[in-house]
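Re: that chain you flagged

S.,

Sorry for the slow reply, it's been a week of failed gels. I finally had a moment to sit down with the sequence you sent. For the record, here it is as I used it:
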Amino acid sequence: MIQVSIEELKPGMVLARSIMSENGDLLLAAGFEINDRVKNKLETIELPFVWIFEEGTEMVVPEELISEQISLQTISSLKKNSELIRQVAQVKELTADQMKEVMAEPAKFKNMVSAERIKRSVQEILDSIMGRDSAVINLNSIRSKNGFLFQHSLDVTITSIMMANKLMFNRFELEELAIGTLLMDIGMVVLPDQIVNKTGRLTYNEFTFLKEHPNYGWTILRENNQIPLTSAHIAYQHHERQDGAGYPRRLKGTNEPPSKTLNRDKGYVHRYAEIASVADAYVSLINPRPGVLAKTPEETMRALIQSAGTQLNRSIVDLLITMIPIYPVGSRVVVIEDQKYKLRGFTGVVAKANPDQPNRPIVILLQDLMKRKIKPKAIDLASEKDMQIQFVPLR
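Prediction finished late last night. Pasting the structure tokens below so you have them in one place:
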């Protein structure tokens, strides 16, 4: 199977993976043949890409860290919580001053978040991730514009768990971290849609309003006696910076590994929030909000490294860099150097990762230099030292 953007879909292509709605309803089943009507429907729900069958790519099976069922159930829980909170807050087109009045009565949000449902999702996510022997973070979610916020929270949670597991956090710590990351953007749901869903640049006033969402999230979560306060602090602190220039309280970091110190003095970012901040930055780069181009793995690494030390905890960034797949399974690549087979300019997909040599995966070439289909050709780059490839972003 290969990834294809909606713009690249052509009649006759066959879906390799089913497409589900954010409510868990089946929209299109695997095996469905694409036609113009279906393509128009997919454009309407604003999916970034789909997986289709391609002869010769049967071995291309991207790893799923959690099942689609767990993913949909978790997103459904987040959505239901959000809908209840929006109803209580009576969100329509409130101004920042009006929202302050709403949040000035936090008791109205008492136990509004269904902690039991969230904790059940966390247990399922942890059981799934802990049951896999994976050293890299593979996020293969297909997100629509409407479900972006919830899928983003789930991807941040998966990334945070995998890093914290590497840091030898115990199960209790992992649970607190996961609860917090799933709910860290809960404050966004009370913001006006015209700000949350805006694809263009925010005005100064809009961004100032947006920066209140950590305060809103903290206000909502601390009113729930089933949500650990340490988890609620992730919502409160995930936009703080190591240099103290973040918001809302201008807390500082030490750039030390989060496993070193369990409790820090006042004025410093909680270690859970430091992990969440790095995961949030990573996911925002590779799976950005609608209207923003995704970064390549190389661009993502470069951006994270540039932010390390000042914005993000340097130790956590160093860890994450080792877990980012340079060539994720299913990603497109182009041959940029090859003397032996004369395949320069040929394109294909990554079929299998190489844990020992991440930059030397098995690839399947599908098109020649002129973009004409060829008989699929599998090449193990670990054995072809002179061949060099380059990641091709899906646009």
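What I noticed first: The two ends are 18 Å apart (CA to CA).

Talk soon,
D.
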